[in-house]
Please model this.
Amino acid sequence: MLSEFDLIKRYFAQHSIQDSRIALGIGDDCALLNPSPGMQMAISSDMLVSGRHFFPDADPYKLGHKCLAVNLSDLAAMGAAPLGFTLALSLPEANQDWLAEFSRGLLALADEHHCHLIGGDTTKGPLNICITIFGELPPGTALRRDAAKVGDDIWVSGTLGDARLALAGYWNEVTLSESDHQLAATRMHQPSPRIALGMALRGIAHAALDISDGLAGDLGHILEKSAVGASLFIDQLPAGPVLQTQPQELRRQFTLNGGDDYELCFTAPASNRQHVIAAAAKSHTAVTRIGQIEANAGLRLVDEDGKPVKLQYKSFDHFVNP
Ligand code: ADP
Ligand code: MG
Model:
């Protein structure tokens, strides 16, 4: 039988950390961090609950990836560079096959982003995974939700809607070929946090956030916090490669209200268009201009001819949605 301490040692405390910003990692009562001189810390938590955020039989490698990816995505949305993270894990049992795969998926993404596992807590209970992530950035450069200005362009990274389309496939709301469903499901299970783009947008973008609950609803947070409104060019929203092959109505719905996209939505002055494009190129991340910040409160959808489009939009809410 694996003890709690053996489990931590075997699966989560494998390497000594070679990073001067981490003075002490796993093994004591606290980890000790030395952020780079003059930097401000960015801190965020995200919890993933079995049966709510993922299927109970989810592939543990992909689950490890996703748990960290959604947290890294929050750092990306502020323009922060990753430092480290803690992992609070509630497990029904110490299943070694599951733990080996979960930690492999988690630590592979951690290595890719030089983001070190520095501590956590482990307990027996329903499967529940909570990560707190720590990043750093120069003071005054964070891409905050309250910083959008009238006249700003609205941009989005990557593509939208394939994760939602994959879910529709699982729920038999749509029929997809096996290969299309696989492709869309990769977006759902293994999102790519846009860390490099977020950092490259410091000093160029005004406001930003990551899209987890659907573009329309999430953009609504920027509008509210910045006390502005917006028009969105509904047919310019970049649909994922699988969603692109679907009818217009579904494309519009899932790009606008999909959820689980983990792309960045950001605003930037029109005078910075070339800088945005350069930041995208530097970070090897596609970006699309999808709208405009306006003084009139509320979100307006317009089609290619600039005509208003009526479409329901609402974001996912755990206490309202089933
Ligand atoms: P405490 O007695 O303070 O609660 P624990 O016995 O829970 O400490 O943990 C011992 C060490 O292992 C601590 O450094 C803690 O941060 C780390 N740790 C516990 N669980 C995990 C985990 N799931 N992932 C990474 N580190 C962990
Ligand atoms: Mg503890």
User: Anything to note?
Assistant: The first helix runs from residue 4 to 11. The pocket of adenosine-5'-diphosphate (ligand 1) is lined by residues 8, 12, 26-29, 87, 89, 117, 119-122 (CB under 6 Å).
